[in-house]
Automatic annotation (TrEMBL):
<protein>
    <submittedName>
        <fullName>Phosphorylated carbohydrates phosphatase</fullName>
        <ecNumber>3.1.3.-</ecNumber>
    </submittedName>
</protein>
<dbReference type="Pfam" id="PF13419">
    <property type="entry name" value="HAD_2"/>
</dbReference>
<keyword id="KW-0378">Hydrolase</keyword>
<dbReference type="InterPro" id="IPR041492">
    <property type="entry name" value="HAD_2"/>
</dbReference>
<dbReference type="InterPro" id="IPR023214">
    <property type="entry name" value="HAD_sf"/>
</dbReference>
<dbReference type="InterPro" id="IPR006439">
    <property type="entry name" value="HAD-SF_hydro_IA"/>
</dbReference>
<dbReference type="InterPro" id="IPR023198">
    <property type="entry name" value="PGP-like_dom2"/>
</dbReference>
<dbReference type="GO" id="GO:0016787">
    <property type="term" value="F:hydrolase activity"/>
</dbReference>
<dbReference type="InterPro" id="IPR036412">
    <property type="entry name" value="HAD-like_sf"/>
</dbReference>
Length: 215
């Protein structure tokens, strides 16, 4: 029986992947570089901002230090987030359903804490979560299992007693490596069939997740 559900945030709970894509496109355009949705989905989705900035600098040979690049990313992101970030369809209904059934709820996000709390607070969702783990709390980001192992520890349940909800390939791989059953709800890019074979199910929306869990 599932005792706890652990949510990813970006691309799963909130519709923020489009914002991250826009940030990198805007910044790279200053250097005359193009950046596609396919590139973002393949190499940047589900990873920490620090890891993505390092990849951008190495790939596009930008004339910025790591600190300058990260500062520009955060400034661009703060501007876009202040305009509001949409929840994924079915998110509130799923959270309310889990709360009504007294299932523990966790958050395991590669995001920095301040950013995640700001976005969740826009939708008054902070009280929904029993425990949260942020990217800076673990040594290795997804697809390493660290963040989900830590989430299970904080929730007080064994990995097999929990369920992860993820959208990205690296997230599904991380949950599987942690020994936690995972449902994939693809966002910008559908993970490979090899990765999806590691998932308990692949569903099209959080509405479908709610139906699946109630059956």
């Amino acid at each position: 029986m599932i005792q706890a559900v652990i949510f990813d945030m970006d691309g799963l709970l909130i519709d923020s992947e489009v914002i991250s894509l826009a940030i990198y496109q805007n910044l790279l355009s200053r250097f005359g570089c193009s950046f596609t949705k396919e590139t973002y989905a393949a190499h940047y989705s589900g990873r920490t901002e620090e890891a993505n900035v390092k990849r951008l600098l190495a790939t596009y040979h930008l004339d910025w230090s790591f600190e300058q690049a990260l500062e520009n990313v955060y400034a661009e992101e703060a501007k876009l987030i202040s305009q509001g970030v949409a929840l994924k369809s079915g998110a509130k209904e799923l959270l309310e359903d889990l709360i009504s059934r007294q299932v523990a709820i966790g958050l395991a996000t590669s995001s920095v804490k301040e950013r995640a709390l700001t976005i969740l607070n826009q939708h008054h969702l902070l009280p929904c979560f029993d425990q949260m783990v942020f990217g800076h709390e673990v040594e290795h980001g997804k697809p390493a299992p660290d963040i989900f192992i830590r989430a299970c520890e904080k929730l007080g349940f064994e990995p097999k007693e929990c369920l992860v909800l993820e959208d990205s390939e690296s997230g599904v791989q991380a949950a599987h490596a942690a020994g936690v059953p995972v449902i994939c709800v693809p966002d910008m890019k559908r993970p490979s069939s090899e990765t999806l074979d590691k998932a308990l199910a692949t569903l099209d929306s959080l509405h479908e997740v709610r139906v699946f869990l109630n059956n």
